[in-house]
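Structure record:
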Amino acid sequence: MSQRLTGKVVLVTGAAQGIGFECARMAAAEGASVVLGDIQKERGEKAAAKIRAEGNQAIFQPADLTDEAHCSALVEAAIKNFGKLNGLVNNAGWFPRARLEETTTELWEKVMQVNLRSAFYITKFAVPYLRAARGGSIVNMGSINGIQGLPNLVAYAAAKGGLLSMTRTLAGALAPDRIRVNYIIPGWIATEGELTIQKGEGRTAQDLQNAGKRLPFGRMQTVQDAAYAAVFLLSDESAQVTAAVLNVDAGGSMLPIQNDMYPG
């Protein structure tokens, strides 16, 4: 690693596992002090401990990201422990499958809370500290469903579309403060959550790998692919990048919308 984030403090939500953990781990390896936020207390503590075992700085703060007070406390934990905030990765997400007729009001509300409202809360509390640091970077982890949703992900697609709209709105609103706001489309990644969903639908990990071979680059994406993009957007190398949609999907967004390879 090249220490591109030396001296920076980065907060990552949904960081106990998957993409969020890898973003935190890689940011720490690049020199950042990282704060991991997640509702999964035991996993989150183990994730932070693993980063520290690699010789880097990390703390874990348990947080229900659908709760405004918890989001405020998460941001304050970053300030209390490291004195400032330079970067934020809004990664927390949940994507249950349901077509329109199957989407209950309760399901709709929870999907919006986890995927969109949590990002709103954290960003609202983080911005004053990013402004105090004379600028920073907000990275919103999106989805191909934010621009071309699949029929069985109605609520999730609406939430990720809302996150994209919020990204573009805040990029303009926060530009005078030199706060950059960008959106990553991470492609199809076999995280723990994705593997659980696929197993429940009768598919195996090998089925996913075989499906990945149908992508333009011939494989599924990895958590590392997404984290590399996040680190770039957190670093000063992207100082002139804002309101961008960065596709890390091996060209998967070029596939027809009817192709059900992309569940999330």
